Amino acid sequence: MRPLLLALVALVSVPLAAQQARQQVPMDSARARQLYVSNRPEDHPVSDYAEAIENKARTDSIFAARSRGVMRFEKITYRSEIDGMEIPAYVFSPLNPRAKGHAAMVWVHGGVHGNWDQNYLPFIIEAVQRGYVILAPEYRGSTGYGEAHHRAIDYGGKELDDVESAHAVLQARPEVDPARIGIMGWSHGGFITGHLLQRGARTRFVAGAAIVPTTNLIFRLSYKGPSYQRSFSTQEGLRGLPFERREEYLKRSPYYSVDSLSRPILVHVATNDTDADFVESQPYIDALRARKPELSETKVYVNPTPGPSSVGHTFSRRVNRQTLLRDDSPEQIDSWNLVWAFFDKHLKP
């Protein structure tokens, strides 16, 4: 019996010893600091707000200068329908507009605290030359408008209403046909596009394109880790991570609302995307193909050619930063050809 008793004691003591060892790890260790994720809004990552405002002023001057003789350029503000917040926006339109004669699109920038910059210019110019009016909102959380606008970020929340409210702004413009308004976005902008096309009967836009979109915040936050999570958990509308706010993160992830898609959507993704990683976007593509084939046009670009400073995530937004002209690759040309054919079909510019 003695050997058996010793064996039983050993089995019990091993987990106890391991537990005691874990308890001895100091909570202020480098590992603990690395993993700590606050849920307090006052701990939201800060930015150099003054520098961002200066950068935005430079961008605005470039937009104005490059638009002369090419297209009309305006900087406007409008109120979000959700709470009346002032949303800055750019409007680009043809030099000689036709009364109620133009299709229009809301173009949504990407990034957690992103903004519109001059690198979008060649694509904006092409859209306007094709007859579209483009409204580009700087929804809450965008950079370049001071601390209050920055800290109002609500990823997958009120920002959706900020962007959707732009639809009414376009409807009211004299050159826009209110029955031909679409939406397009990249990365986080594709995330917003997917959401706004997947609102069932509430959907306002005729059609939309989501390029390399974010699709699943529950997967994404676990995949990216604490440094990325801190930009979400500290938002006023979230105040926590997916395990703490499960239903909220489900609601804020387009992957889980595919069945509510009610208007045509085009989605392009890249297998070598290291931002909106393909392991995140592939299930969304699969869900669209399986459950909404009549409303979705999807394409997976296999390792599209990267530029000098770009990876798969920007495969269709390659721009020479000195000339601000397209830096085309075969995949970029193909993607835009498909995008324009899609919108020509549904918006008829």
Q: Which percent band covers the strand fraction? A: 15-25%
Q: Quickly give the CATH architecture.
A: 3-Layer(aba) Sandwich
- Could you name the CATH class? Alpha Beta
What is the total number of structural domains? 1
Radius of gyration based on Cα positions: 23 Å
Shape: globular
Mean pLDDT across every amino acid position: 92
Strand order of the largest sheet: 1-2-4-3-5-6-7-8
CATH fold label = Rossmann fold
Question: What string, H for helix and E for strand, traces the elements in order?
Answer: HHHEEEHEHHEHEHHHEHEH
Class from helix and strand fractions: alpha/beta
Q: What is the CATH homology-level superfamily?
A: Alpha/Beta hydrolase fold, catalytic domain
Q: Helix proportion of residues, in percent?
A: 25-40%
- Tally of helical runs: 12
Name the poorly predicted regions. 4-14, 16-21
Terminal CA distance reads 89 Å
- Biggest pleated sheet: 8 strands, mixed
Give the tally of β-strands: 8
Blueprint of the fold:
Elements: H1 2-23, H2 30-35, H3 49-67, E1 72-79, E2 86-93, E3 102-108, H4 121-129, E4 133-137, H5 147-151, H6 158-171, E5 176-186, H7 188-197, E6 208-211, H8 217-224, H9 226-233, H10 246-251, E7 265-270, H11 278-291, E8 296-301, H12 330-347
Concise summary:
It is built from twelve helices and eight strands. It has a single domain (48-216, 253-347), classed as Alpha/Beta hydrolase fold, catalytic domain (Rossmann fold, 3-Layer(aba) Sandwich), CATH 3.40.50. By secondary structure, the chain is an alpha/beta fold.
